[in-house]
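Lecture notes, continued. The same structure-token format from the folding unit now serves as the input rather than the output. Read the line below as a description of shape only.
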């Protein structure tokens, strides 16, 4: 067994993979929420549809997309492995008998939060990503060309109260997940220091509030203004 295999099969190696994939997905969230802000543009969806077309046809973006999919898969797999290892290490449910006083609720329930987010992700991908790639999409024509009208699909989807509620609740849970995961990733990478750890904590907590809030605002905006 090579040192690489030994490293990534160790507890520390698994945590390292979780940290690196988590940070990559955080970067992905920044790009994703930035592009989706075009939903707020009052142009009938043109800018959003042109953006969606670029994201599904540009070769460089496709490479990044594959990296994102792999990061999600690895993040899920290794979270399951680490959760299973933790349970085996404490077969009598130590955390329930004697819960750690200094740990937060979200840090103790990262597995539950992650599971719900994964379910949400499946719904999200089926409703938009799958439709954009292989669904029977309506078309719309602008001066710049003819595009798949993903904007119409998004607006139609967010006329449904249950879906809006699912998105808002999921973004709240994502915020809790990020609140702990952001700082935890830097700790795993050994980036702890009394000088810059407070800054990492501040940025992480701000990120965990602002980004999910922006995502949640989109279905709410569409439901209440375009309904």
């Amino acid at each position: 067994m090579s040192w690489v295999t030994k490293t990534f099969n160790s507890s520390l190696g698994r945590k390292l993979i979780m940290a690196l994939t988590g940070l990559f997905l955080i970067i992905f969230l920044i790009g994703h929420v930035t592009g989706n802000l075009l939903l707020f543009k009052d142009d009938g969806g043109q800018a959003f549809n042109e953006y969606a077309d670029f994201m599904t046809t540009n070769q460089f973006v496709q490479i990044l997309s594959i990296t994102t999919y792999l990061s999600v898969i690895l993040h899920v797999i290794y979270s399951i492995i680490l959760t299973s290892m933790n349970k085996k290490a404490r077969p009598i449910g130590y955390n329930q008998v004697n819960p750690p006083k200094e740990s937060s609720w979200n840090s103790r329930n990262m597995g539950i939060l992650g599971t719900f987010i994964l379910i949400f992700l499946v719904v999200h991908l089926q409703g938009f990503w799958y439709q954009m790639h292989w669904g029977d999409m309506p078309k719309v024509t602008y001066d710049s060309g003819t595009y798949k009208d993903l904007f119409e699909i998004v607006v139609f989807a967010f006329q449904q109260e249950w879906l809006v509620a699912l998105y808002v609740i999921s973004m709240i849970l994502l915020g809790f997940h990020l609140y702990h995961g952001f700082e935890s990733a830097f700790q795993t990478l050994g980036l702890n220091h009394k000088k810059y750890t407070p800054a990492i904590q501040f940025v992480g907590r701000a990120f965990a509030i602002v980004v999910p809030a922006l995502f949640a605002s989109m279905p709410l905006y569409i439901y209440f203004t375009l309904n």
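Point for the exam: Residues 157 and 163 are 7 Å apart (CA to CA).
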